[in-house]
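Before relying on records like the one below, remember that each one covers exactly one chain. Contacts with other chains, cofactors or solvent are not represented anywhere in the record.
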Amino acid sequence: MKSSHFYHSLQRKSSFFSLCNNPVLMDDAKKSFSLDKSTGKKCYMLAARGLMIAWGGNPQCWIWKNVPYSRFTEVAELKFVWWLEIRGKIDTSMISPITNYVVAYLVFKMRTDARGFILHPIDVSVGISRSTRRSHMLRLRHPNRSDGWLEVELGEYFKQCGNDGEVLEMSAMEVNDEKSGLIVQGIEIRPKAV
């Protein structure tokens, strides 16, 4: 009996670390699921293909391509726009209850010849549908991630019990200058570090 319990415990631990280190693709590879190693809470990344990107279907504005070390088969690369708008949505029932999420991070890279992201901050928001809270303006910063991508925080959300079925919306927008060279992998939703 003890060896059976020990075996199942090892199996659970192995599954946990596998989900921490190897995100699982879902929803036709438009989303990934993983677990946060320090808290065990749910993490998601919405792929660029699962986001609403203004002019994303116009090949003069955005191109879709494969790049090394992306979690998804395609990323969106900005060729040229004035109106940059990226929006993502997730049902609150998918994320862990009673958890403060740093919702979320825009996960991106910049080409060396990128333009339009230094002088003007990006307007970001995170909140429940129809009651979205506007956060302060943020400039694109370049913190390092272990996967080689960059990220900028969009905002925070506290998931309480009993608010399942609501839609959490996240957005990043900048409309004051011509822009190019941004490569978007997606928006990541993960618990705030404790």
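The CA atoms of residues 107 and 151 lie 5 Å apart.
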